[in-house]
Amino acid sequence: MEKKNLWIMVGYPGSGKTYFAKHNLMIGPGWRYISRDEIRFSLLKDGEKYFSHEKEVYNNFIFKIRSALNEEGIFNIIADATHLNQNSRQKLLHNIKNIYKNFDNLNLIPVVIICDIPTAIQRNEKRSNYERVDNNVIKKMASQLTDPKDDSIKYSSIIYVENGTKITTIEKPRFMYKKNEPKIKEYSICNIIKKEDTYK
Fold it and tell me: Which of 105, 155, 177, 185 has the highest CB neighbour count under 10 A?
């Protein structure tokens, strides 16, 4: 059975997670984008606070990921939420492991969006309604961001994106190496996500 890939977006509001996921990862059939914010905004009513339905939002987020993982023809699932530290990433994976029987056959790939705080705030100022958060929240969340390479979780690879432009990886995902190909430390995102029969 062909392995599936879970792309875990990592970054605080305004960093460019959603833009990058939709414009650089979503490359055609076989991909499914799941946004925690989109679920949240669909549930919020006028006058309600941002976190009014948080338990329902998270449960729906996990349910949609599980559905995508079990769907035939879907091999790349993007989980778009902040996932700022090991605890939040571990919580996500713990919940998925409990509901997805092929979890051990799943490639886990955090995509860390590195963005300076002034740029994130500038982007945030252009947002409206629930999409715009308090600028102090961005500063607080930025201080909570930790590097997935320090997690105890065994990831297939970690991708770093700097302000939506420069893209590098710690190591190309194991499943993308051709036979006898020497390991490299940097690799184009286009090649990382490109599906070819020769990549096994």
Answer: 155
8 Å CB contact between 74 and 4: yes
Predicted model pTM: 0.82
Distance (Å, whole) CA 28 – CA 155: 24
Q: 73 is written with which tokens?
A: 């023809």
The residues near 65 (Cβ < 8 Å, ≥ 6 apart) are: 6, 34, 77, 79, 96
| 3-class SS of residue 159 | strand
Q: Could you tell me if 169 and 181 are in contact, meaning their C-beta atoms sit under 8 angstroms apart?
A: no
Is residue 6 classed as helix, strand or coil in its secondary structure?
Answer: strand
Domain boundaries, the chain: 4-192
Measured CA to CA, the distance from residue 154 to residue 73 in angstroms comes to: 25
The pLDDT of residue 103 is above 70: yes
Q: Summarize pLDDT for 14-31 with one digit per residue, the tens.
A: 999 998 898 888 767 889
Residue with tokens 């009513």: 45
CATH of domain 4-192: 3.40.50.300
Both structure tokens of 36: 């925690």
CB contact set of 14 (below 8 Å; sequence gap of 6+): 115, 119, 120, 121, 122, 123, 124, 127, 133, 138
